[in-house]
Amino acid sequence: MAKSPAHNVIIIYADDLGYGDLGCYGGRKIPTPHVDRLCESGIRFTNAYATSAVCTPSRYSILTGRYPFRNNQAHILPGNAACIIEPGLDTLPKAFQRAGYRTGIVGKWHLGLGDGTGPIDWNRDIGMTPLDMGFDESFIFPATADRVPCVYLDGRRVQNLDPEDPIEVSYEAKCPFEEIPTYRKNPELLQMKSSCGHNMSIVNGIGRIGYMRGGKKALWKDEELAETFLNRALQFVDGCKEQEKPFFLYYALHQPHVPRVPSAAFRGITRLGPRGDVIAELDWCVGQLTEHLEKLGIREDTMIIFSSDNGPVLDDGYQDRAYELNGTHRPAGPLRGGKYSKYDGGTRIPFIVSYPGLKHRGVSQALISQVDLFASFAGMLGVPLAEDAAVDSQDMYAALTGDDPVGRKDLLAEDIGCGKLLRQGSWAYLSPSEGTPFMPDTRIETGVSRDPMLFNMDYDIGQRENVAWDFPEVVEEMEQRIQEIMRRPQNR
Question: Model-level pTM?
Answer without folding.
Answer: 0.98
